[in-house]
Amino acid sequence: MTISSVKQSMAPQRPAKKAAAQAQAEVAGDNVQISGSAPKACGAQLAQQGNAAAEQCAGNGAGPGAAALRTPLRMILIGPPGSGKGTQARLINQFFKAPHISTGDLLRQEVKQGTELGKQAQVYMQAGKLVPDEIMLKMVDNKLAGEESFILDGFPRSKAQAEHLDQTLAKLGKPLTAVANLMVDDEIVVKRLKERGRQDDTEEIIRERLKVYHEQTEPVTGHYQLQTLLEPVEAEGSVPQVGYNVITQINSRLRPQGC
Ligand code: B4P
Questions:
Q1: Please, are residues 80 and 191 in contact by the beta-carbon 8 Å criterion?
Q2: Cα separation of 172 and 179, whole Å?
């Protein structure tokens, strides 16, 4: 497949930024206040298209983010360890109601339950390395098969995982909406994670995870840039500020033109 055919087959129709509706995501102290802002006309227009969720939007003139959506949100969060993928996934879930799938959380659950898979994964996690694809791919495929929309946090982490995901989503007929690339300086990440203090948050393991990120995961952003799915997000600010950035950027891709 050539680059241009990849672009043509995978590129979503991106509404003009100016015309896109704006998420009302306001930073107020430590909180991000989020509400949908699709105007009445938008809801009515979508309702005419038989979109049941949009009828709710038309009824109240705004409604939560998810109510005004024509297409389900299917997105990926990429970023270095500690960039806030898990933190932001929870905020995005609050706004768009798409299920949050975190490969890190799935693995930690297996470790906690003492499963065979968990025992194998733990060795890699404690070394700051990527868990092998034999474990990861099946785990993610199973989760994605059951979800119409999703916020995928921590997957893919390599070009091989990204290519596998392309094939899985093509088979399922579930194209991606966007890939948010959370951009944070390494030293900020080290500080944040040392403060969190999870088992794999010692300075030595954090630096190894960063090395693995730069070598294996960062190139994945190029993969999605070619598919015109990449949204670079400034992620060094406070949690609500980053939440505002990511939600408004994703929202502008989701809302239909003129709404
Ligand atoms: P993950 O669970 O994905 O962990 P992470 O990258 O460290 O965290 P994240 O970016 O989600 O940061 P968070 O929001 O929690 O992976 C753990 C391990 O699992 C990997 O090292 C690997 O071994 C394995 N693994 C997972 N997926 C894999 C895959 N696909 N393939 C192979 N192996 C895989 O935030 C971190 C901290 O920063 C928190 O304390 C938070 O409060 C704070 N924070 C967040 N945003 C902030 C902000 N804006 N300002 C200040 N602090 C902030």
A1: no
A2: 18
Residue 70 has pLDDT above 50, yes or no: yes
Instruction: Give the mutation target among 85, 151, 185 for probing the ligand 1 site: most ligand atoms within 8 A of CB.
Output: 85
pTM over cut 0.85: no
Q: Smallest Cα–Cα separation from 18: which of 255, 228, 195?
A: 255
- Domain ranges across the chain: 71-246
Please report the atom of ligand 1 found closest to the CA of residue 235.
49
Q: Is residue 120 helix, strand or coil?
A: helix
| Atom of ligand 1 lying closest to residue 125 CA | 23
CA distance 217 to 80: 8
Q: Indicate the top mutation candidate among 120, 188, 192, 233 to test ligand 1's pocket, ranked by most ligand atoms within 8 A of CB.
A: 192
Q: Evaluate whether the domain defined by 71-246 bears CATH number 3.40.50.300.
A: yes
Cα of 233 to ligand 1 centre, how many Å?
Answer: 16
**Tens of pLDDT, residues 123-170:** 999 999 999 999 999 999 999 999 999 999 999 999 999 999 999 999
